[in-house]
Amino acid sequence: MMQVLILFIQILVLFAIVMLHVAYATYFERKIIGHMQVRMGPMRVGYHGLLQPIADGIKSFFKEDIIPEQADKAAFRAAPIICLVAMMTSLAVLPFAKGWVLADINIGLLFIFAMSSLASYGVILAGWASNSKFTFLGGMRSMAQVISYEIAMGLSLVGVMMLSGTLNLTEIVEAQGTSFTGMYIFPQILAFFVFCIAMLAETNRVPFDLPEAETELVSGYCTEYSGMRYAIFFMAEYIGMMVMAAIGTICFLGGWNGPFVIPFFPPFWLILKIYVFMFFFIWIRATLPRYRYDQLMELGWKLLIPLALANIVLTGIIKAFTS
Amino acid sequence: MTSQTIPQEYLAILILIIFGILFGVVTLFVGRFFRLSRPYHEKLVAYESGNEPTEAPRMRFSVKFYLIAILFVVFDVEAIYLYPWAIVYDRLGLFALVEMMLFIGLLLVGYIYAWKKEILQWEK
User: B95-107 in b/e burial notation, b at 16+ Cβ within 10 A?
Assistant: First the structure.
């Protein structure tokens, strides 16, 4: 019982911290895109708009919740919660530092894939339940995109598993050692490339944000959602971005290891690296135009999957002849 | 890992799932007493650029989505078989390499077939 209580408190703290980071990731994004487009971004609420995310949260809490007449009510209500739960559950297996992990399970990486697949259920359910043409098309597109890129992402990480010989995320970080040259980004540069592109597509970010392409599908699968339900989708998306950034950091960039140890706060380097990834997400968004849907599917199936397979074979051959 | 520690590790995941569901449900439920609610027909109709929806939205869609789903099943199963192989790769040595080459080679035949059948191509 005591243990459950401790776990509950840990989860509460983790959740509060992640929510704060999600809120300020939106601020970070708007501010950076603003400056990249030579404007200021949010400025009104608080000093340089620092309270903007909190104001947005309060606003969406008080907004009217509209459920369309034709909608499948139960599925419509369940969809955002499925998304949020699937994304949040991935947080349990992420090691923030040595021993700073909620569930140190031996199939960590597999668990993350399972959860990110479950999140696509929420998306397709939202598209189906809203009973609107835009959401329907958005949901279909999203499903096809996510499952296509999930294969590329899953295959790209096989190389990492071969080098480390484990699926446990803590052990993957430890297998890379503390030195800069031990990072898997160097032997697995091909896999890192595939991972980065698949990561953008998995989280529905520009240039692969086809499911919510506002120029053609209004807002894609969440067109009919408003107020807090929309905000929950939004939170799930940002938690998803953070989880993907954390996976990239853990599998390729040496996790929480840095040039020197920060006393009292071991996750420092991990968080810094996650924010580098987040900056990369936002930078890409400010730079690139959107892909066309057929090009997106061709890129996934005809380039990334063969590349990931080639990487596996290459890693296998090199490992077999060097050991 | 002993048999006792495994359920304990998964306990955190179970609690997190329950916590996530509670967070979503409670936020939406509490919000019900604070947010306004003035529904009328025009507001509740599905969005279609301001017009009344013309036909049922659950229309027929491209068969491509179905083909992609089938391909996904094939390749995802492949990925699942690759994971345990990758983990014990060090212990199996050259045998594992040859074995996996055969496995990937077989799948490659199917992949090339799908490519030639233009399943991966959306526009002709």
Answer: ebbeebeeebeeb
Chain B residues with beta carbon closer than 8 angstroms to that of A12? 19
Which among A134, A306, A316 has the least Cβ separation from residue B100? Answer: A316
Of the candidates B24, B59, B87, the beta carbon closest to that of A81 is on B24
What's the rounded Cα separation, in Å, for the pair B72 and B79? 10
Residue B117 has pLDDT above 50, yes or no: yes
User: Rounded to an integer, what distance in angstroms lies between the CA atom of residue A116 and that of residue A150?
Assistant: 9
Buried b (16+ CB within 10 A) or exposed e, A127-148: bbbbbbbbbbbbbbbbbbbbbb
Per-residue confidence (pLDDT) for residue B1, from 0 to 100: 42
Could you give the CA distance from residue A219 to residue A225 in angstroms, rounded to a whole number? Answer: 9
- Predicted complex: ipTM over 0.90: no
Residues of chain A below pLDDT 50: none
Given an 8 Å threshold on Cβ–Cβ distance, is B121 in contact with A133?
Answer: no
Q: Does B39 touch chain A (CB under 8 A)?
A: yes
Contact B89, A319 (CB under 8 A): yes
Give the nearest chain A residue to B53 (CA atoms). A132
What is the value of pTM for the model shown? Answer: 0.88
CA–CA gap between residue B13 and residue B30 (Å, rounded)? 25
The torsion angles phi and psi of A93, rounded to 5 degrees, stand at -95, 0
